[in-house]
Write a structure and sequence with these properties.
Layout: H1 2-10, H2 17-41, E1 60-72, E2 75-78, E3 81-85, E4 88-89, H3 98-108, E5 114-120, E6 132-138, E7 141-142, H4 143-150, E8 153-154, H5 168-176, E9 193-194, E10 207-210, E11 215-217, E12 231-233, H6 236-241, E13 245-246
Parallel strand pairs: 3-6, 11-13
Antiparallel strand pairs: 1-2, 1-5, 2-3, 4-8, 5-6, 6-7, 9-12, 10-11, 10-12
Helix pairs in contact: 4-5
Length: 249
């Protein structure tokens, strides 16, 4: 009996097979769960490390409003409050193109007319001046896009730090297809000025104008041949109306 007990004490205890298998399976499952958690919540690129950011909503809610008056080319007062057009920047009052932009807006959506106001879900409701940000459409004419085609700029969207809006791509496409407002002053004199050709003036406008001094030189005068003109005039009256005076020699 004593020898039998001694042999049992000396023999190593074996772990039940099903218990060893269960622990091994649990370890494998823990490693798998850990890897799954890393794929879902860890850092890294969207789609692997974290869920991709949701795309902005394309939803636009439309309501009717009556135009009371236009303040300028992109701001209109309606019976629903003051509206600032989305996605366009028309010239400020007194700047080149401002008068044209305001007149155009009055033509597309005159006072007393009914317009559709579009409120994109992706754009904040008001700007810092408490104006409602909306699309303004009348009889199929999108006033913002029409202003851009006329000479204004596509602005105030996700390309320059503001919110994306559903018509943004179309506005920028229209912007690339047009020229901005240009108000270069034309020289007076009934179109009687011309650009020089090299060091000479054309026969139709032979009087040489020196822009820095605002002095003009007539053919035959002392410094006529050596003067490099910036502008040419067809007559002395045209030169004087442009603010030039005749050379004394």
């Amino acid at each position: 009996m004593c020898s039998t007990l001694a042999l049992l004490a000396a023999s190593p205890r074996r772990r039940p097979r099903n218990q060893s298998h269960r622990r091994s399976h649990e370890g494998t499952q823990t490693r798998r769960d850990g890897a799954h958690r890393h794929r879902i919540g860890g850092g890294g690129r969207a789609g692997r490390g974290q869920p991709a950011e949701a795309a902005p909503s394309k939803t636009v809610t439309w309501t009717n409003a009556k135009v009371i008056r236009w303040k300028d080319g992109d701001t209109v007062v309606t019976n629903r409050g003051t509206i600032r057009l989305i996605g366009v920047d028309t010239p400020e009052t007194g700047r080149c193109g401002a008068t044209t932009a305001t007149k155009s807006a009055k033509k597309w959506a005159p006072a007393g007319s009914t317009v559709r106001l579009g409120n994109p879900k992706s754009v904040r409701d008001e700007d810092r001046y408490d104006r409602s940000l909306r699309y303004v459409v009348r009889k199929g004419v999108d006033v913002s896009r029409s202003q851009i085609l006329k000479g204004s700029k596509a602005r105030y969207d996700s390309t320059d730090g503001y919110q994306w809006h559903p018509r943004q791509a179309g506005y920028h496409k229209a912007d690339k297809a047009h020229k901005n407002y240009s108000c270069q002053k034309k020289k007076s004199g009934g179109g009687s000025s011309a650009k020089p050709v090299g060091h000479n003036c054309p026969k139709s406008a032979p009087i040489k104008g020196n822009r820095p001094s605002h002095i003009y030189h007539m053919p035959g005068q002392r410094f006529y041949k050596i003067t490099g003109p910036e502008i040419c005039f067809s007559s002395e009256s045209a030169a004087r109306k442009a603010g030039y005076r005749k050379s004394k020699v």
